[in-house]
Specification:
Strand content: 5-15%
Order of helices and strands: HHHEHHHHHHHHHHHHHHHHHEHEHHEHEE
Distance between the termini: 59 Å
Radius of gyration: 25 Å
Keywords: Glycosyltransferase, Membrane, Transferase, Transmembrane, Transmembrane helix
EC number: 2.4.-.-
GO molecular function, one term: glycosyltransferase activity
Number of domains: 2
Structural class: mainly alpha
InterPro entries: RgtA/B/C-like
Shape: globular
Organism: Mycolicibacterium crocinum
């Protein structure tokens, strides 16, 4: 376990230290965890010139231990439960507010989850070698790398899923009350972390109940039902207004169309190929979109596709081999040993079905959103591999070669992926140029856009932030921009903004006496969250 923790730190810490860009949802997490979500959304600074420092106070800690404020703001303005943001608030109080600080919390959670996964494998009588291989593969897998790189609740959500599996297995094996109490606690905290936690919770509870039913353990079945009821009541006591967030989340669902139906169905395949992949695709986006524009990306993509297909094939072979050599029928599957693989497959199919049926929004197929399924899958595959080995009289030469070669392959892929991220860090450096601006005009005051743009701004910079419609309708006083030696126009292409409106604003700015402006960065690659451009005007 110590080796696994050391590997996680050595693989991820250089990548997290190199982060420059704070993404759309990440800044929302920071603003929320610093107890400023409501303050930002109701800010009087919108549509007026103000110092950047006046905006930046919205992602700084002005008060400590304001858990009630975080919860109240999330009920009224957000779609998520509050527990992760409470944890992030405590973390910021202890270690300060910064990009690296917020991301390192994920690293701590990933290390804890790796320990839980390893322990679960050992509890299920998986050999120490197989337990190590499975946990190492999980630690450096693409879903792990995707989730650890964002300041959001997916790593914590996944840790509670792993904990749910562990306490469920322990209770089934030992039938001790403390494990049932732990199961109840995990259910409450899990739903308080993410409203999708009922998916793994329901699947796990149903499978555990089915196992108990086949055993004719009616007493334990009743205890399980009571634990679920107690957990539901406890959650409601802590979060009585949760339905407001749930109804708000429903508004994000997309309308059904046949072209998108086929597109979504096709997205399932590349997503499945990435679940066990230890090497990054160049752009692991919802539809498996790949970037073929540059030769190095072509090489990375081809190599990653080959490794993704190879790892998926290996996993399928392990599972099929175990099924052929193991018990058949319902009684063969409703066992503690096969609980993880059954729960993982059912959770994955549920997520895919919700996505293809347009219940979930478009981003739900992203790997960080499916991260919660991975503890089930990796523990389940490890247990199935152990079944396959147990069916043989002695491990074969092929297994010995795989056991010795797999750690090296996993580590090389993980090191290459982190190294590529660090090398390409320079692509995001133009965002730091905003710190040179004497004045800054931003055509968005949106919650997830403006803080990312102003993250590296000089606190003394004069900032005017408003939507494109407001800027074009009012043509605000451009005095600070005219007086500035350098002023920047940062244009986000998100939400109601359009390229046509951007050109109108640029035409107005070019008439202020600073020339036509130099393009610092332009394109759809999201240097600015959701895409955007940066223009510099110099006197």
């Amino acid at each position: 376990m110590l080796v696994l923790v050391a590997v996680a730190v050595l693989i991820y810490l250089p990548k997290l230290m190199a982060v420059v860009l704070v993404d759309h949802d990440d800044v929302i997490s920071v603003v929320t965890a610093t107890c400023n979500q409501g303050n930002f959304l109701n800010s009087p600074l919108k549509g007026h010139w103000a110092d950047a420092s006046q905006w930046q106070r919205y992602w700084q800690l002005s008060s400590h231990w304001c858990f009630g404020q975080i919860q109240s703001d999330m009920v009224h303005y957000d779609i998520h439960p509050p527990f992760y943001f409470w944890v992030l608030h405590v973390w910021f109080v202890l270690f300060g507010v910064s990009l690296v600080s917020g991301l390192v919390l994920n690293l701590v959670v990933v290390c804890l989850t790796a320990v839980i996964i390893y322990v679960t494998c050992r509890v299920l009588a998986v050999s120490s070698t197989l337990s190590f291989l499975a946990t190492l593969a999980w630690t450096v897998s693409l879903p792990s790398r995707t989730a650890v790189s964002v300041i959001r609740q997916y790593s914590l959500f996944t840790m509670f899923t792993a904990a749910l599996l562990l306490v469920a297995v322990l209770w089934l094996q030992k039938k001790q009350l403390r494990y049932l109490v732990a199961l109840c606690v995990v259910l409450v905290v899990g739903v308080l972390t993410h409203f999708q936690f009922p998916i793994p919770a329901a699947v796990t509870i149903v499978l555990v109940a089915a196992i108990l039913w086949r055993r004719r353990s009616l007493r334990e079945l009743a205890q399980l039902g009571l634990a679920v009821v107690v957990a539901a009541v406890a959650f409601y006591v802590v979060e009585p207004s949760f339905m407001e967030s749930v109804w708000r989340a429903r508004e994000q669902a997309q309308s059904f169309t046949f072209p998108q139906l086929f597109q979504r169905a096709g997205a399932v395949i590349p997503t499945a190929l990435q679940l066990f992949n230890p090497l990054d695709w160049s752009h692991p986006l919802p539809y498996g979109l790949l970037d073929w524009a540059q030769p190095q990306y072509v090489v990375i993509n081809l190599l990653s596709i080959a490794i993704g297909v190879g790892t998926t094939y290996l996993v399928v072979r392990i599972v099929v081999r175990a099924i052929r050599s193991g018990p058949r029928g319902v009684d063969g599957w409703l066992t503690v040993q096969r609980l993880p693989i059954c729960a993982g497959v059912l959770c994955l199919l549920t997520a895919f079905a919700m996505y293809v049926s347009f219940i979930s929004p478009v981003q739900a197929i992203g790997l960080q959103y499916l991260y919660f399924v991975t503890p089930f899958l990796f523990v389940g595959v490890a247990r199935m591999a152990q079944d396959g080995l147990d069916a043989q009289d002695s491990p074969g030469v092929r297994w010995q070669r795989l056991a010795s070669a797999l750690p090296a392959v996993l580590l090389v892929c993980a090191i290459v992926s982190s190294a590529l991220f660090v090398v390409h860090r320079s692509e995001f450096e133009p965002l730091r140029d905003i710190a040179r601006a004497d004045a800054l005009i931003v055509d968005s005051d949106h919650f997830g856009v403006l803080p990312a743009i102003l993250w590296h701004a000089d606190p003394r910079t004069k900032v005017f932030a408003a939507s494109q419609d407001v800027i074009l309708a009012n043509r605000p006083d451009a005095g600070p921009a005219v007086a500035a030696r350098e002023f920047y126009y940062v244009s986000s292409t998100a939400y109601e903004n359009t390229r046509a409106k951007q050109e109108q604003i640029l035409h107005w700015l070019r008439g202020l006496g600073h020339g036509d402006g130099a393009t610092v960065r332009q394109g759809v690659v999201p240097l600015i969250p959701l895409g955007g451009d940066i223009y510099r005007f110099t006197r």
